[in-house]
Amino acid sequence: MIGAATALYRGTGDAAYLNKAVEDARGSLAYWTQGSRLHDQPAIFNAFYFKDLLALDAVRPDSAYLKAMSAYADGTYAGNRDATTGLFHFQPSGGGDYDPRIPAETLEQSAMVQIFATLARTTR
């Protein structure tokens, strides 16, 4: 909803869409940044979520968006990455704690690459 409202604002200039995107972003950050909720979500969900937050950030800046994304990326790199292979391992759900018994899935690898690439482009 954040990405759709942001796109509608960009396309129409209607501030109601921007206000809705901001409201949704604030509410979702309040929810997802509690405890381990982001960590437990599938990495692919987080990749889309963060890209939508940063699209909103481009038109209505809020440092909380990049802060949440960076914290997730740092935590996942430290806790879910196999230093030997460089691959990320998650639970069968695609999120959560490192589990070496679960094969590294292509979808989660691509999600993490997207998150790190987006961070690199955003923070240069």
Question: pLDDT average, as an integer?
Answer: 95
**What structural category characterises the helix and strand content?**
mainly alpha
Number of strands: 0
The helicity comes to 55-70%
Q: Tally the helices: what do you get?
A: 6
Mind summarizing the main beta sheet?
none
Distance between the termini: 27 Å
Could you describe the 3D structure shown?
Helix content is 69%, strand content 0%. The protein has helices at residues 2-12, 15-32, 37-40, 43-59, 63-80, 106-122.
Features:
mainly alpha, elongated
Summary?
This protein is mostly helical and 124 residues long. The protein has six helices and no strands.
Give the helix/strand layout.
Elements (H helix, E strand, L loop, with lengths): L1 H11 L2 H18 L4 H4 L2 H17 L3 H18 L25 H17 L2
